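Let us work through a complete example step by step.
Step 1: write down the sequence.
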Amino acid sequence: MTVNNSELIRRYRLDRSGIMFVTDLIRDTLTSPTQHRNAIAPEMKVITTLRYLATGKMQQCTSDDLGPSQSTVSRVLNTTVAALTTPDIVRQFIDFPTDLQTIRQKQADFMRIAGFPGVVGTIDGTHVRIIAPTVNEETYINRKGFHSINVQVVFDANYKILDLVPKWPGSTHDAWVLSQSGLTGLFEQNYVRPGCHLLGDSGYPLKHWLLTPYRRPQGEQQLNYNRAHKVTRAVVERGIGQLKRRFHVLHGEIRHSPERACRIIMACGILHNICKARNLPLLDDDDDDDENDDHGDDDSDHDYDENDDNTTEHTLQSISGRASFRDCFANSHFG
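Step 2: predict the structure and record it as tokens.
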């Protein structure tokens, strides 16, 4: 029986041509060097992995006429996810723009949302549950009390992922994740031209290139700035929701080591962007719904406190300068 594209998307999140695209992308890596009679074809490895990522349930992959045993599914998953998350493939599908033409298009797309100028991306952290690790277990307990990976993600206005950092234990603050990421270097070293901004919540430090809301807005300009900031920044919240609805493995508890969990998260991000590039719809999955949805209770970290920095005179001057920049920005654009 031939399965139509709607059913393929429901089961695997990709249509037939999308499945073949992903398979061809990593076919050489997935092809068994010994062509024995029972070797699993690359296509089967890909759809088995896609089914696991779509449902988050290993047993689902063995009961959908896919055939492999659970132990085989586990080996296939590890091999396929590793092939899909090599540095070359990550750079091919998740790459923060630095060229002027692309940046201007991103800014124009965001400007149409609420009139907030200069925005190239919206940033947030989201927690993905994992089983308790055997090493450094306490560092993975987040402020909500469960074990997780704190994942930094940046979306553009069309919900494409521009940056994804699935690396840090759940106890790590969003601001620290950002400070240690390559994204900070891109902006601080002017690989991304001045005048380009990310929007983040108050869990992030205010910077010339990272604009946060006023905690206590005063006057019409600051109120207007906060309103436009909130509406525009909501893109990242909806983007995280789309990512987790598309790949339900991110809803529940990933029952793998932190290292494997991080690769699974990255694979979901790459596949999400492939779905976006191919204009594949995000379906409502009634029978695949995951009741353990952590989106919405974990995506707003506690406020960033400048006192967490080493408060020297230079630091205080720097904080004052950033605040003055935001005031000038609000007065110029939201008066």
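Step 3: interpret the result. The longest helix spans residues 219-246.
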